[in-house]
Amino acid sequence: MSNCANSDRPNRKGFPGGFTLLEVLIAFTIMAVALVALLQAFSTGLASTSAAEARSHLVQRAQSRLADVGAGIPLEPGVHTGHEDGFDWRADIQPFPPEAQGQEPQSLGPKLFRVEVTVIAPDGRRQGLTTLRMGEVR
């Protein structure tokens, strides 16, 4: 007789072939754990992307304020503040090097200033940028 004729016969333990309920439950449990891990990885990735986008937005606002120094914000020693679209900003302009702060200018030629701009988001996150600018002392 061939093996095909014996395929409907119960296995040696007396049970028909196939998966038991326990094997199916274990397989579903393994798949559920893997799915949870995969969803957590996606969630972490989305949160990181959102945080990076928010930080990039703050950097762009700070760069915009730096670009305003000398145009909309006078390039003179002092602190300038403002509020725009829910964001607070602060520009601190000081002579550079710092030892030059208390000294009278030797001439009315161009001087170097340290410009520090800080932008504060409505949720309290901060981003600061610092640069040096050349300008006339008035």
Summarize this structure briefly:
With 138 residues, this protein is of the alpha+beta class. It contains 1 helix and 4 strands, in the order αββββ. The chain has one domain.
Could you name the key traits of this structure?
138 residues; alpha+beta; 1 helix; rod-shaped
Shape: rod-shaped
DSSP summary: helix tally: 1
Cα-based radius of gyration, to the nearest Å: 34 Å
Number of domains: 1
Query: Percent of residues in beta strands?
Result: 25-35%
Strand order of the largest sheet: 1-2-3-4
Q: Tell me roughly what share of residues is in helical segments.
A: 25-40%
Largest sheet: 4 strands, antiparallel
- The strand count comes to 4
In sequence order, what are the helices and strands, one letter per element? HEEEE
Distance between the termini: 110 Å
Helix/sheet category? alpha+beta
Average pLDDT rating:
83
Low-confidence runs of at least 5 consecutive residues: none
Can you describe what's shown?
- With 138 residues, the protein is α+β, with helices and mostly antiparallel strands.
- It has one domain (19-136).
- 35% of the residues lie in helices and 28% in strands.
- It has one helix and four strands; from the N terminus they run αββββ.
- The chain has one helix at 21-68; strands at residues 78-84, 87-95, 110-120, 126-136.
- It has a four-stranded antiparallel beta sheet.
- Strand 1 and strand 2 (87-95) form a beta hairpin.
- The longest helix has 48 residues, at 21-68.
- The protein is rod-shaped, with a radius of gyration of 34 Å.
- The model has no long low-confidence stretch (mean pLDDT 83).
